[in-house]
Design a protein that fits this description.
4 copies of one chain form a homotetramer.
Chain A lengths: L2 E3 L6 E3 L1 E4 L3 H5 L2 H13 L4 E3 L8 H13 L7 E6 L1 E3 L5 E3 L3 H15 L4 E6 L8 H13 L3 E6 L4 H14 L6 E2 L9 H6 L1 H7 L2 E4 L28 H8 L1 H8 L2 H6 L6 H9 L5 E6 L4 H8 L1 H7 L2 H11 L12
Parallel strand pairs in A: 3-4, 3-12, 4-5, 5-8, 8-9, 9-10, 10-11, 11-12
Antiparallel strand pairs in A: 1-2, 6-7
Helix pairs in contact in A: 2-3, 2-13, 3-4, 4-5, 5-6, 12-14
């Protein structure tokens, strides 16, 4: 395993993190989910990601139980959660980043996780209805209480992140050190262009989700949607994307020979995962896994990172045909 | 004439300003240019806009001479200039927003204008090579020296304006109160969507340029480029735009009956100009004029603003077919 | 016993402190270690120093147990620990000054010490991988939580201490009030020259370690390394230093008559220890002791401090031949 | 000519600057001195350096006269001076960085230079007798008055520069953006090691003096001191250095073949000058010149910079044998 600093902090995270979206408390059985965690941990993964909104809190619950069960040292782990889509006990929603919800959400998350603190708490989305000062103060409050070590954002625009720093700087508070965006071979502009000024100004770290674009980059949909699969539902997000992305699927299939160059048995998915780690501000790529086998397959990507040189990056760009344009400036 | 506050300041400007781009010191004769100024002034225009980069400084010179000649009270006027594209005495360029250039540029502009101060000094473009702190400090320096009353930006991204405010807030300095973007029926997204958070946060004012999209919105190119006109040059910006905008020209021609509804003789150009003033954050629309007649025609737009109601705005949007999408939020 | 203010604070510490390095939880038996503590305490020592990294946490454990056992009033004592070299329960290392480690390290140290707070928490080394702002904020967090009364540094360069103050001043936080460097007749430059500006600027206090240079200054190695002693191991730090320091050992032996002048039975070691206390910014010299006898011998140094006058200091400097050059300035 | 940003500012300076030390108002005749300035200017040099202490003010006088005489546009030029060693009209000295002297020194320098402002004013040395806050406030005062655009330091330690930034940050004032140290193949540690943290923290720029170590690196003393030359005086600084540097002269002579590799007629001096420009934080190397020919010879170094590749740099290091050791850290 390799480790990187979490953006502009002194804390190191494994370059692959295990996330609980969809898989924890969701369609993957609890026992299998725990086994994927164990496999990841034993391979050196120290970073586990969850959210109050994943499976209505069941993802956090599973994560907490597993850590207790395995008896892992809490301080060995980097645990993150995200606040935005909360739920009251009666099932009613409690959504947003009001100070009231941030404090309540954190309290409930920690109960589910059976922990005193998380290492990173993310604002799961921007909240256009709560003033930025309230948001920045609320997340700083969690840090001051010792319930979180760092705070970050997820899917915020660069302007929103800049605004958070404006408020933090003005009030001498702590700004968001990490953003959790989607990043993969298909979705590139935000990470490669939009956030560029933030790297220069704040050394912003990224923990990216969907590095495999929900499986599309593994090539498994290259020949169309397998009938009966998760994607094979009328109106499903997958189906729409796969159908729209006709050209992209064709391009993905052309990555296969490039993957093979890196070694026998290397898959497009491993190449795609390693590719996200070539970006210097990506601290960690968060994978989901429905089996131990899948964890192991994914972790092989770690060793590929060094092997992917400038020449290969250029050839990948040629295949993808979506390198975002942007001028490198002195202060961006 | 009507007057509006210049963004979040206590200073009022006429909703129509007279600008010197292309016309002052440029292709319009000096005497005619002065007469357009006089006509505007007599109709209540108090806001005259220039830039160090207009006609290599000749625009400012003409503006300064005219004011002296007419004997207008300086304190009745709102005079603005912009710094970025400077020129040394030997013709070499001195470009950017370094403290050195901002100070030198202001000094030279004031000499040309024969003034002690301008009311607004704009950073004519963002400068990716000068640290934002240097820029914010330099424009504040002009204000502290009394050489400018306010400072603003021109064609900055919302993120850059946010960054300027971050620095200003952090250092207890004055932030940019006004932005000068292009805004007209054809170019809408920046003003209507991108800047929206800035209106809420800073009550940012706008002094918009090209409200008539360099004449295209007057309808004069609806039937093609008049041979021998300014646009009728191979490779000219105009020609290219007019030729590309085939569809847009056709749509513009369909605005003509809507203009007529507002009164006999009301032209598409007057409608288009009034339309920019419907945006609540536009403090002033800056027009250029090559004749006194043109000034008078344009000023008639002022009275139309009130007459353009929600229904008409919707019908205009239908014709234009380019209403930017974007959700209006509580804090945006 | 004599007491001095801990640098620029209102807290007084005994000029001799008892430290746990090597001796607590290490090669000295626990019972003997406790007796040395008792002897020191009864002689007026109120300051006991430890670190999370001493003997893998056993030094802190012993210190905590002893205090419980003796039933001393916690508020009579000044207890310090240091964070940097932490260890997880499974033996893996957790090193550095990331906020994550500082918080976890403090929690675990306090558990071992069976205390609610320490009086001083030191950053045991500078951490080039964690931003200074994170470090300064993390130590302030410990103070805000009540887990520490003051924070300090150990073996930081003057520039690093200056940088910590820069951040603390900028953010209105508490800067490091004390540094724990090595200081003795052999190692002088840092304390006498490098830190000089810090005394003037921050009235920085020093709690110095190795005042006897690990025994070398007691003269016990003057005639070479006793066979079978701790120093008598191939490649040991001691052996190397003793062998290299041929000339220094000879000089140390010439201090013996000077010690004798201060009184019958006064040893070179007592002279050397008292000599460190002549520096006005040394708040306390930290000794280690492997026997009660050793504690008592060392404590006799306290009374010598007053007796060592300018003339003797000069003669000591002549013998040592290593007075660092440097001009005493008004603001240094 | 090539230009670089002056440290963390938006102002560009030519990579070779012409300095007035020893040559202006000194042993070079005034007419020759002016001709060297003209030759430099015509070759694209825009940066001229002086000091109140050079030749008792005569260097500044000459610089000012020459600029007037040549009719150069002031805003085309970057003019710097340094304050520390001032002189009253009666010849008595007025030394240091007291607010009183900084203000008086600046006023007198500007009179001698016949200018309204300089671009950079340096604190010519640290002043241990004036509190840093007084120094930082005084130089900011010059900037606020418009008498200087930027301020910097000369021969300050990294700790002193850090302290200046501490005060500037605390008081929201402007810190020193540039340092003027000696830097050449013989004197390397300060620039390559000591200042490293300042590059990371403040993007500190350097305008280095003595890039040729007062001629030693041109090789002209390789065979000893020419009898009757400036260096051939008993007790002269040169004589001492040349005599001491026996080994270094021999090493310098071994650079000659490396210079030849870059092109026919390329001298050791040109190589040595270009070598200083390989350091990324060097904005400009300041040369002195006693003839137009010398200026032209030196300026040829500019084109060599690109040609000196990593391999050649390594071979130079081998010859010099004085590469300073130092660990590259994440935050240094």
């Amino acid at each position: 395993m390799q480790y990187r600093f979490l953006g502009n902090t002194g804390t190191k995270v494994s370059v692959i993190a295990l996330g609980g979206w969809l898989t924890h408390g969701g369609h993957t059985g609890n026992e299998v989910a725990k086994q994927t965690m164990k496999a990841a941990y034993e391979a050196g993964v120290n970073f586990f990601d969850s959210a109050e909104g994943y499976a209505g809190g069941r993802a956090e619950k599973l994560l907490g139980e597993a850590i207790k069960e395995f008896g892992w040292d809490r301080d060995d782990l980097v645990i993150s959660t995200k606040l935005y889509w909360g739920e009251h006990e009666d099932g009613s929603k409690d959504v947003g980043l009001s100070r009231k919800h941030v404090l309540a959400g954190m309290r409930k998350s920690l109960q589910r996780l059976q922990m005193e603190f998380v290492d990173i708490v993310y604002a799961h989305r921007p909240d256009k209805h709560t003033p930025m000062e309230e948001v920045v103060r609320a997340f700083n409050h969690l840090i001051h209480k010792g319930q979180a070590i760092y705070w970050g954002t997820s899917e915020w625009s660069s302007e929103e992140i800049m605004d958070a720093w404006r408020i933090a700087d003005k009030l001498n508070l702590i700004g968001p050190v990490v953003e959790q965006p989607e990043y993969n071979m298909i979705s590139r502009t935000r990470v490669e262009i939009e956030y560029a000024p933030l790297y220069r100004k704040f050394n912003l770290g990224l923990t990216v989700f969907s590095p495999l674009r929900r499986g599309i980059l593994t090539g498994k949909y290259n020949k169309g949607i397998p009938s009966g699969s998760r994607a094979d539902k009328e109106g499903s997000w997958f189906k729409e994307e796969v159908e729209k992305g006709g050209d992209m699927l064709e391009r993905v299939s052309r990555l296969e020979p490039l993957a093979k160059e890196l070694g026998e048995g290397i898959t497009t998915g491993q190449l795609a995962l390693a590719w996200t780690l070539k970006h210097p501000n990506v601290s960690s790529a968060i994978i989901g896994a429905t089996s131990v086998e899948q964890v192991r397959e994914n972790l092989k990507a770690v060793e590929l990172v060094e092997k992917i040189d400038k020449g290969l990056m250029d050839r990948i760009d040629e295949v993808l045909g979506n390198r975002p344009e942007g001028v490198p400036f002195r202060f961006d």
